[in-house]
Amino acid sequence: MRKIFQKGSFEIIIEDRANPEIIDLFGSTVLGTPGKIRYQFAEVTSKMTAIRNCYYLTIRKGGRLFGTVGFVKRNTFCLGKSYDSWYVRYFSIKAPLRAKVHKESHPEASKALNTDNIFKSLASEYFENPYLFLGDETPPTVPALLYGVVEKGNIRSQQFTRVVGFETIREFCTVAFSRTVLRKHSNISKIEEKDKAFVLSGLADFYRGHTLFTTENLFFNNNYLVCIKDGEIVAGLQANPEIWRVVEMPGFDGFLLMKILPNIPGISSFYNPEAFRFIAIEGVYYKEGFEDCIIPLIETAMYTHKAHFALTWMDTGSPVLSKLQKLNRFGAFSKFISRIPADIKCKFSGCAENEQKVFYDHPVYLSCFDMT
Questions:
Q1: What does the domain layout of the chain look like in residue ranges?
Q2: Is 35 exposed, middle or buried, given 0-12, 13-18 or 19+ CB atoms closer than 10 A?
Q3: Quick one: 175-336 is in which CATH superfamily?
Q4: 2-169+343-371 has which CATH code?
């Protein structure tokens, strides 16, 4: 713990681990965009304590925690080149910290400006040089970048990222799968330790044309599944069980999902918005000609964790998404889960203009660990 700023009753402190206060704050945070799908993570402790190299800028008022934003230091790869990267997440501010809102044409924009100005005045230098978290006051001598994700309709977060100098580089969407009957496939199993290096090598080649590729969260809790044919691994994916509490879902689809479906016998046994169970997917890999193995892998993950839904997040220009769309086996209930468009935001440091252009022109790899 290190205090870096104090002004009146406000103080900003760097924490290098998720203490109970930070976990409680983020666990109580309602995520998503007002007027669209809003939700809470039902369980955040295990992941927040498992994340390595995460530094939290915490804002306190009168000694009480009112806000936090986390910076996860990791290596990412762009076309095979390694970058020092900082993924920005765990952004949460309690309402009492926000300044009074004056009447403007758009109340949400006003809230955004007030909140973001507080964060900017207290912590802007850490967005300019995140190596300050490591006690290094000199600017980095190697290319580095900060990145994060923001829903397009989330005005407050969009405004905040603009204030601290982030740019939109790509767009992504949520991809949903559903199965009313769970099924296990016999040629699919959890990866063995001896096979991990082979799969990591395959993934590095598979995502060589992507940016922001990271292996940091693969094999979490040994949840990587592989498909084996003729004694050879031909496909695989990471599948983490998750539970969300859905707070709001507007529109007719929202009415069905929040009020009607949970009360229908049969459906109510596997769908409950108060405890929405699903599998979060990343690290999808397949050898050429074996893309049809993706669906059995997802189905086996659902069977293993007794979840009737699966979600993944993909760049709208991802070739993997294109393959999934051609397979067109998303399931009957997947259409009710809207593919909300969102932005991948990035702030470059020490990157030449032609180097930055690569991030605009190539699909981004998204980790489900970062989205849940």
A1: 2-169+343-371, 175-336
A2: exposed
A3: Gcn5-related N-acetyltransferase (GNAT) (3.40.630.30)
A4: 3.40.630.30
Residues paired with 238 in a beta bridge: 224, 282
Per CATH, 2-169+343-371 and 175-336 having the same topology is answered yes
pLDDT digit string, tens, across residues 239-254: 999 999 999 888 887 8
> CB burial class (10 A; 0-12, 13-18, 19+) of residue 192?
exposed
Query: Three-class SS string for the chain?
Result: CEEEEEECCEEEEEECCCCHHHHHHHHCCCEECCCCCEEEECCCHHHHHHCCCEEEEEEEECCEEEEEEEEEEEEEEECCEEEEEEEEEEEEECHHHCCCCCCCCCHHHHHHHHHHHHHHHHHHHHHHCHHHHHCCCCCCCCCEEEEEEEECCCHHHHHHHHHCCCEEEEEEEEEEEECCCCCCCCCEEECCHHHHHHHHHHHHHHCCCCECECCCCCCHHHCEEEEEECCEEEEEEEEEEEEEEEEECCHHHHHHHHHHHHHCCCCCCCCCHHHEEEEEEEEEEECCCCHHHHHHHHHHHHHHHCCCEEEEEEECCCHHHHHHHHHCCCCCCHHHCCCCCEEEEEEEECCCHHHHHHHHHCCECCCHHHHC
Each residue's pLDDT tens digit, 325-364: 999 999 988 887 767 789 999 999 888 899 999 999 999 9
